Amino acid sequence: MTESSAVTAAALAETNVFARPWALDLGLPDFAAVRHEDIEPAVRAGMAAQRREWEAVACDGAEPTIANTVAALERSGELLDRALTVLGTLTSTTHCPDLDELEEALAPELSAHTDAHDLDVRLYRRFKALDDLVRAAREAGVEPVDADGAPVDGPTARLIRLTVEAFERDGVALTGADADRLRAINSRLTGLTTRFGTLAANAMHAAGVANFTADPGLATAESHAARVELLARSMGRGLGGEYDTRGLVVEIARLRAERAALLGYPHHAAVVAAGSAAGTAEAVAGMLGRLTPAAMANARLEAEACAARMAADPRTRPGETFGPADWPRYERAGRRERFGLDDAILAPYLELWSVVERGVFYAATRLYGITFHERTDLAERMYDPDVRVWEVRDGAGAGAPVLGLFVGDYYARRGKRGGAWMGALVDQSRLTGRRPVVINCVNIDKPADGPALLTWDQVITCFHEFGHALHGLLSDTFWPSASGTSVPCDVVEFPSQVNEQWALHPQVLASYARHTDTGEALPAGLVERLRGQGAFGQGYATAEYLGAALLDQAWHTLGPGQGPAGAEEVEAFEHAALAERGIDDALVPPRYRSTYFSHIFAGGYDAGYYSYIWSEVMDADTAEWFRTDGQGARDGDLGLNRRAGEAFRREFLSRGDSRDPLVSYRAYRGRDPRIEPLLSRRGLARARGASAPRTAHSANRKEHT
């Protein structure tokens, strides 16, 4: 804790739990000790403390150095971080209307607080001076050192350069009325996006559907009419009534477009791309545009097969024809017909805790040597009795060092936001001496009695989210702002996607896929059929995803004054935007409609939802590396070995954003990523004109060479 934070924390009431650092292991928040009324004073005290810390740096008359500028700012905000971590965790995982209201009320003040840093030209000049120093030293062919004589290593030089770019991208050069307008826009946007997240979550729970369009119930509803009603309920969220989000969507898009113009960009997508690996919105549009025709062509072929199955179904009534509500049911029927598989057959072998402990953890141990030890004492201090905590050690012996803590919140509950996600409760950093504490949140229905049996999609979700957790747990960076998942938005999904492959590895599957009653392994025939599905159903899955990614880009490539004028025009805008980009939304609705697309209107993926397919290029290429003998694999083990795991850990997972992601990728892969493995995986061979993501563009743009 810095001196300023300590002074402010001491000013809090002695009974306020935030008045002192957490006493639990590794700084795990003591949720059981938190009173809701403690949070607001702590947030306000934390903002005041950090403002003093920033001001001390800005007013320092000494020449900028790593110690008095970079390290000082990286250490700032300890109290505020603790308070906001608790607030954000509780509002996203529990039913707490009072804290939802507090979060919305604080949003404008937190926006102003962020602007106080991002628009402070004094702080910018200090970083710019350090950046110029690094540039001059490199041009002279010498190693850069600051005014204290401290060497500026590669990760520090990268942090300085990225910070300079962020200041410039965020509008530090604006003055007068333009700067005032920027602050007003930022404040309003923070409030609007917070409100959108609350309404979208409430609408999901009120409708009794999943957070995405194709609710899983569509696969099991027997009548066409029931499926149509369920899809209409899912897609109708936010289109009116108590949880109408259309007005928020229009205003958010309009303000983002106005802000982009103030910052000198044609639209918001260009702002986001400038800070990403893609580099430009044109690169994003090019990749999505090249994949869409092949995906839609595949989806239409799949639709013909599904329509034939529906026509042959005795439950289909005269006059009923195949439509978007029928995809999940008849794709499921086709999967069962072709492979003898569906969720009902697999579920008895997919018990939640077996998947987590004997699957997800088992694979991590085999790859990275880490072990997991449950801490029921720490779980007792969490916010819900269903939450579990494990201590993660870097090795198997009694003396193995503690690497971090993993918190698993797997069950759905009232008030919990939809979907699945990973969060950092404590960021790893060698500067602060902190070890990582990460959490995975999933929404699995808890049965009234008996074990929780998963669908195959839920199994993949567990592996996916733990890939994010590994990115945090295995982080080994000096600067906290560069640790773990603090990477460009179109790289952050890469480690989680890579981790999905282990769900199907023969040895991993044999470990966790055990019948919940008999303990017998999943029969070999089912294993082979599960592994042999290839690109089945990928036309629909890819088109559904691309629809959402293209819709995101449509909203965020609008210039000032463009787009819907009011809430009543949102649906027409959606349809026209998707049609223009080659998506037939009457056949394949997007995975998210605008009115419940929390990723882009509340979740930080605005103009960045494309990142899943962008990073999947690296994922598919890396999966090939793991599987290939002489590369990641050894003696036919498909890459499940410590040598491959350590290479991936050392060169990528541990690095965070301390070096360019492409440099990290090349360090273990030996070359740039190729797109062909992705095209093969998704059955998109006709899109071979598409090119792989050029993350090198990020390196050229962000760092001087």
Give me the secondary-structure category.
mainly alpha
In what range is the share of β-strand residues? under 5%
Low-confidence stretches: 694-705
Name given to the CATH architecture of one domain: Orthogonal Bundle
Count of individual beta strands: 5
Strand order of the largest sheet: 1-2-3-5-4
In helices, the fraction of residues equals 40-55%
Q: Major beta sheet, specifics?
A: 5 strands, mixed
CATH topology annotation of one domain: Neurolysin, domain 3
**Tally of individual helices:** 28
Overall radius of gyration: 25 Å
**Terminal CA distance:** 36 Å
Q: Can you walk through the features of this model?
A:
This protein has 705 residues and is mainly α. Among the domains are: 3-173, Neurolysin, domain 3 (Orthogonal Bundle); 351-515 and 610-705, Neurolysin, domain 3. The chain has 28 helices and 5 strands. The chain has helices at residues 3-11, 36-58, 66-75, 78-93, 97-118, 121-139, 154-170, 176-207, 224-235, 246-262, 268-274, 281-312, 327-339, 343-346, 352-368, 376-379, 456-473, 494-500, 506-512, 524-531, 538-556, 570-580, 598-601, 611-627, 642-651, 661-669, 676-681, 696-702, and strands at residues 371-374, 388-393, 402-411, 421-426, 437-444. A hairpin with an 8-residue loop joins strand 2 (388-393) and strand 3 (402-411). Helix 2 (36-58) packs antiparallel against helix 3 (66-75) and helix 5 (97-118) packs antiparallel against helix 8 (176-207).
List the helices and strands and how they pair.
Layout: H1 3-11, H2 36-58, H3 66-75, H4 78-93, H5 97-118, H6 121-139, H7 154-170, H8 176-207, H9 224-235, H10 246-262, H11 268-274, H12 281-312, H13 327-339, H14 343-346, H15 352-368, E1 371-374, H16 376-379, E2 388-393, E3 402-411, E4 421-426, E5 437-444, H17 456-473, H18 494-500, H19 506-512, H20 524-531, H21 538-556, H22 570-580, H23 598-601, H24 611-627, H25 642-651, H26 661-669, H27 676-681, H28 696-702
Parallel strand pairs: 3-5
Antiparallel strand pairs: 1-2, 2-3, 4-5
Helix pairs in contact: 1-2, 2-3, 2-4, 2-5, 4-5, 5-8, 6-7, 8-10, 12-13, 12-21, 15-17, 15-19, 17-18, 18-24
